[in-house]
Design a protein that fits this description.
Elements: E1 4-9, H1 16-26, E2 31-37, H2 48-59, E3 65-71, H3 75-82, E4 86-91, H4 94-110, E5 115-120, H5 130-138, H6 149-162
Parallel strand pairs: 1-2, 1-4, 2-3, 4-5
Length: 167
């Protein structure tokens, strides 16, 4: 039987922290599905299709069975459709834990057959958040320590198209 895990997120943009969780999570399952979702409340910089392309490009060459798909439904419905036995979530700080703990409890109420597994972010990557990466980029800061080189270029092009703040 194939163990399938789902790693959901908006990935706007995909960061080195996300990539750390993807690499480590792929070792825990036979098949890892990265679920790119919509979340209008997060005010995305990139469309879902652009984010899927970005994540696919970043995972090229990773060992194991890792795929990227979109979803716009309840996470547990998506996980069930993918045949997942676990939801993979990354934690950076205590604030993440409180939110994720509540979500895990709600998800367990929706489907008790799917476990939530938390991975702590690598210490060097813990402060990285997509929201902060975008903010730094909009103010002309260097984001290359937080995202891969191709994502850095993607963000720079988008920010240039929209216009930097403070200029």
């Amino acid at each position: 039987m194939t163990r399938t895990g789902v790693y959901p997120g908006t990935f706007d943009p995909v960061t080195l922290g996300h990539m750390d969780i993807i690499r480590r999570g792929a070792k825990l399952v036979d098949r890892l599905v990265i679920g790119v979702t919509t979340n209008p409340s997060k005010n995305p910089l990139f469309s879902v299709e652009e984010r899927v392309r970005m994540v696919k490009r970043e995972i090229e060459g990773l060992p194991g069975d890792v795929s990227v798909v979109t979803f716009d439904s309840l996470l547990m419905d998506f996980a069930e459709r993918e045949g997942a036995s676990m939801i993979l979530r990354g934690l950076r700080a205590v604030a993440d834990f409180e939110y994720e703990y509540q979500m895990a409890g709600m998800n367990q109420q929706l489907n008790c057959r799917i476990e939530t597994v938390f991975l702590m972010a690598d210490v060097s990557l813990q402060p990285i958040a997509s929201r902060l990466v975008k903010e730094i980029a909009f103010y002309g800061g260097d984001i290359s320590k937080f995202v891969g080189p191709r994502v850095t270029a993607d963000v720079a092009r988008r920010v240039d198209a929209i216009g930097r703040k403070g200029s």
